Automatic annotation (TrEMBL):
GO BP term (any one): translation
Species of origin: Candidatus Woesebacteria bacterium GW2011_GWC1_38_13
Function per UniProt: Forms part of the ribosomal stalk, playing a central role in the interaction of the ribosome with GTP-bound translation factors.
Xref: SUPFAM superfamilies: Ribosomal protein L10-like
HAMAP family: Ribosomal_uL10
InterPro entries: Ribosomal_uL10, Ribosomal_uL10-like_sf, Ribosomal_uL10_bac, Ribosomal_uL10_bac_type
Quaternary structure (record): Part of the ribosomal stalk of the 50S ribosomal subunit. The N-terminus interacts with L11 and the large rRNA to form the base of the stalk. The C-terminus forms an elongated spine to which L12 dimers bind in a sequential fashion forming a multimeric L10(L12)X complex.
Keywords: Ribonucleoprotein, Ribosomal protein, RNA-binding, rRNA-binding
One Pfam entry name: Ribosomal_L10
Protein name: Large ribosomal subunit protein uL10
GO molecular function: large ribosomal subunit rRNA binding
Entries under NCBIfam families matching the protein: PRK00099.1-1 (NF000955)
GO cellular component: ribonucleoprotein complex; ribosome
Family according to the record: Belongs to the universal ribosomal protein uL10 family.
């Protein structure tokens, strides 16, 4: 990359980080071109995007985007780094990366930011094991509505008993 192109790249990357719902840094060492293409295709299906970035340019962009300071530490930004960004569901993107890493043993998760919150490698692995956002939302709705259905069933049972008693009384 030419020196004159770097400020434009940093500005573009800063804008991506500001508008992203989540992004993950991974060590892509050992990832072949074919594997990169496969991962990029899988990420594209869930609204994710992967690009290789220089650590210094990422650090500048992250600082401009006011990202958590932990993500720009020197221990994190060592070695080859790929940035995976999503504007949609960050958990779905994380699940794709984690599944791909299990299958091929590369890339290795470093750290990430999920909906504005810094996550280390272990937190990312835990988040990847969660079901997707729509499933979690359905589970919450089900948990909230279950007691309501129980109350309705109980009240209907009492009304049915009352109707049965009244109909027996009217027969006699």
């Amino acid at each position: 990359m030419k020196k004159s192109d770097k400020p434009l790249f940093v500005d573009g990357l800063t804008e991506k980080l500001k508008t992203a719902s989540g992004y993950i840094l991974v060590d892509f060492n050992g990832l072949t071109v074919k594997m990169q293409q496969d991962l990029k295709n899988r990420l594209r299906e869930v609204g994710g995007e992967m690009e290789i970035v220089k650590n210094t340019l990422f650090k500048l962009s992250a600082e401009k985007a006011k990202s958590p300071s932990d993500i720009t530490s020197d221990t994190v930004l060592q070695g080859p780094t790929a940035l995976i960004v999503t504007k949609e569901d960050p958990i779905a993107t994380l699940q794709i990366v984690a599944k791909f890493a299990k299958e091929s043993e590369v890339p290795q998760l470093k750290v990430g930011v999920v909906e504005g919150s810094f996550q280390d490698k272990f937190a990312l692995i835990k988040l990847a094991s969660l079901p997707g956002k729509p499933i979690l939302q359905a589970q919450v709705v089900g948990a909230i509505s279950a007691p309501l259905y129980g109350i309705v069933g109980t009240l209907q049972g009492n009304i049915q008993k009352l109707l049965f008693i009244l109909s027996e009384k009217s027969k006699s």
